[in-house]
Amino acid sequence: MPPGGDARIPVIVLTGFLGSGKTTILRHVLRHPAFSDAAVLINEFGEVGLDHVLVGALDREPVLLASGCICCTIRGDLSRAVRDLHDRRQRGEIPRFRRLIIETTGLADPAPILSTIAADPVIRHHFVVGVIVATVDAVHAEAGFKRYPQMLRQVAAADRLIVTKSDLALEGTTPRLLRRLSALNPQADIAQASHGAIDPALLQPDDTTTPRRWIAQSAEDDPSASHGAIRSFCLSSADPVPWSAFGLWFSLLVHRHGGRLLRVKGLLDVAGSTSPVAIHAVQHVIHPPEHLPDWPSDDRQSRIVFIVEDLDPDLVRRSFTSFMRLSTPASQVQATGAF
Ligand SMILES: Nc1nc2c(ncn2[C@@H]2O[C@H](COP(=O)(O)OP(=O)(O)OP(=O)(O)O)[C@@H](O)[C@H]2O)c(=O)[nH]1
C-alpha cells in the first residue's frame, strides 16, 4: 500500500535509458515473493517488442504496449492498457494484483507518463504513482547526458537511481557518476546493481518516495517529446542463423557504427540450437549472448530490433544478408565491404 493509508494501487515506474538494465532488474525482482502480486506493463520503442520475452518464464504474462513510446505517441494506449488491466482484475479474469510496474521505453521522458496517470479520472481513482526508479548505465551515462536530454529528465524525475554495469566501466567512472547523480538529483536514493541484483525494496514505494507531481504538471506544457533522428527498425530472417557468420557481422557492425547503435536486441534462431539465443548491444558494448529456455511462440524467425541514430537501415539489412549468405571465413572477409 502506498504511504499514508492510500488504498489505491501503487504504480512503480521503471525508467532509464536504452539498454541500461531495466528488464534485467525486472526479471530479478519479479522472482521475489514480494512481487508475486505485481502486474507488469512494458512499453518498447521498436517495431517488434522483445522485452516481454526477455522478462522470461514467469507465471504471469506482462502486457506489452504497442510499438511507439508512451511518452509521446501512445499515451492514449497507456490509459487504455491501465484501465483494461483494472477492469480485468475487477472481473476476476486476472489475479487481484496489488501493484503495477510500468517499464518505459529507454527513450521515454517519464513526466508525460506521470501526467497520464494523474490526469485520467478513472485511473487516478484506482492508481497512484508510488515510486519512480531510473537505471543509469555506468558505461554510457557520461556521454549520454550530453547527447540525450531525456536521460537527464529520467534522472531528475526519479525517487531512486540504480547505477548498472559498473563491472564494465573504466576505473573511476562509477564514483564520478555517483557524484554527478547526487548533484543532479540530491533527493534520490542511489544504489548500484550488478546484473540486475538489487534489493527488491528499491522498487517498493515507502514514505521516502513522494511522487514528483511538479514534473507531471510541467509535462503538460512540454511538447518536445520527439526523438529526432532516432529511429527503430527490425531485421528478421526465416532461415537459421549461422553463429560464426553472425558473430563476425555483428562485431564489425558494432566496431564500425557502434556510436549510432543506441540499442540492439534480438532473438536468434541459431543453426544447430533448439532454443533461442538473446543478443544485446548498447553502442560499442556487446553483451554476452544468452540461451533462453524456450521459444515464446511458434514463430521461430530470428528478429533483431535496432534503435539507431543517423544510420541507414538498408545498410544494416544489406550487410546482414551478405554475411548470412556466406559460410566460409574467406568469403566473409570479402563481405566486410558491405559496411
Ligand atoms: N555486465 C553487465 N551487464 C548488464 C548489467 N545489467 C544489465 N546488463 C546487460 O545489459 C543488456 C541490456 O539490459 P536490459 O535489461 O535488456 O536493458 P533495458 O534497459 O531493459 O533495455 P531497453 O528495454 O532496450 O531500453 C543485457 O545484455 C543485460 O544482460 C550489469 O550490471 N553488468
Automatic annotation (TrEMBL):
<dbReference type="InterPro" id="IPR027417">
    <property type="entry name" value="P-loop_NTPase"/>
</dbReference>
<dbReference type="GO" id="GO:0000166">
    <property type="term" value="F:nucleotide binding"/>
</dbReference>
<dbReference type="InterPro" id="IPR051316">
    <property type="entry name" value="Zinc-reg_GTPase_activator"/>
</dbReference>
<keyword id="KW-0143">Chaperone</keyword>
<protein>
    <submittedName>
        <fullName>GTP-binding protein</fullName>
    </submittedName>
</protein>
<feature type="domain" description="CobW C-terminal">
    <location>
        <begin position="230"/>
        <end position="324"/>
    </location>
</feature>
<dbReference type="InterPro" id="IPR011629">
    <property type="entry name" value="CobW-like_C"/>
</dbReference>
<dbReference type="Pfam" id="PF07683">
    <property type="entry name" value="CobW_C"/>
</dbReference>
<dbReference type="InterPro" id="IPR036627">
    <property type="entry name" value="CobW-likC_sf"/>
</dbReference>
<dbReference type="InterPro" id="IPR003495">
    <property type="entry name" value="CobW/HypB/UreG_nucleotide-bd"/>
</dbReference>
<dbReference type="Pfam" id="PF02492">
    <property type="entry name" value="cobW"/>
</dbReference>
<comment type="function">
    <text>Zinc chaperone that directly transfers zinc cofactor to target proteins, thereby activating them. Zinc is transferred from the CXCC motif in the GTPase domain to the zinc binding site in target proteins in a process requiring GTP hydrolysis.</text>
</comment>
<keyword id="KW-0547">Nucleotide-binding</keyword>
<comment type="similarity">
    <text>Belongs to the SIMIBI class G3E GTPase family. ZNG1 subfamily.</text>
</comment>
<dbReference type="GO" id="GO:0005737">
    <property type="term" value="C:cytoplasm"/>
</dbReference>
<keyword id="KW-0378">Hydrolase</keyword>
<dbReference type="GO" id="GO:0016787">
    <property type="term" value="F:hydrolase activity"/>
</dbReference>
